Amino acid sequence: MSNMSKKKWTVYGAIAAVVVLAAITVPALADGPSYEDLQARLDAAEARIAALDTQEPTWLETRRSEETQALVRDILADADSRAMLQGNGSPVTVNVHGFVQSRYTYSGGGNDEANHGFSVPRARLIFTGDVYDFTYRVSGQWSDGGDFTLKDAYADYNGFRVGQFKSPFMREVLVYQADTLMTDRSIVSNQFGQGRSQGVQYGYDFGRANFAVAYTDGFNTDNGAGVQNGQAFTGRAGIDITSWWNVGAAVSWNDLVDTSYTTYTVDTKVSTGGLDLTAAYVATSGDAGDNWGATVQAGYMCTDTFQGFVAYEYGELENVADNLSTFTVGGNVFVNDNVKWTTDFGYALNGINGAWDLGETGWRAGDSGEYILRTQLQFQF
Prior knowledge:
Structural class: alpha+beta
Distance between the termini: 109 Å
Number of domains: 2
CATH architecture of the largest domain: Beta Barrel
CATH superfamily of the largest domain: Porin
Strand content: over 45%
Largest sheet: 16 strands, antiparallel, barrel
Oligomer: single chain
CATH class of the largest domain: Mainly Beta
Mean pLDDT: 87
């Protein structure tokens, strides 16, 4: 057979194979679902889904729905509460802050056995905020021994203050405890200072000058510590002589029913550059006796984070032989805006009589020559 004949038979064979394959495949395809069948099945599925949507939910589905709705309501209520506390247009706001002081004290000399140890003199919790047009402040403090004591509890409105607060008297007492220059306030301020009282106050700030007057239960009558029917009238005024020099004065008459006395104070403050200098004089007369005290404190910012300071205080109490005379030197390290480390060393030039109110200062009653070393770490939040 010639090559030409072989080629023809090959072509004819291929054509025959295609015809046979087509004969087998076409009937098979014809047996599968048509387009119309597929469309009908899809329509049936959609109808079933629609029917399920119209059926009543099962008990389990209903229970899940109720729990989900309750959870959503709780989340929304919590969000509203947080928005209120943060003051997002709410008439009621709450701000929480405070400070903790951890201190080590070593005192010796004065013919007394050395005394040393750690303490937490103050751990204070403070709430402030607004209630509509009023502002408020409530604070309490844990001291050594674990006792919790109410400190401030007052509301302010348009110059008026009512509740428990510091009467407008000694400047050193009015300074926030966390901002004191030394580790603690002076002995003089503990002895003659106003502490906290319960009553009402009105104050007004003119810009360069300000004044405040108060009617209370008397000095140091916080939490009902005063005598029955005790009362006090207190007034204070201050003026900025220049942008860096302020002068203030205050007077108070305390009527304790069986006894009464008048106390007054004058003070000055100079703030220029890195220097802060304060001086104060305070005295009493009447049934409290003719007593007086004076303090001078000076601090200087040696660097951006270190402030050195010196302080001296002197005082006389009627019928007490030794006059108070102490000298203190120390420094503050401002670790950051919320952490301050204070260390100071004090020396008593005279004996300290037990009639002086030593408070939380760490000083002890004793002979002359007593010294005290205090170092304190303070955290604010």
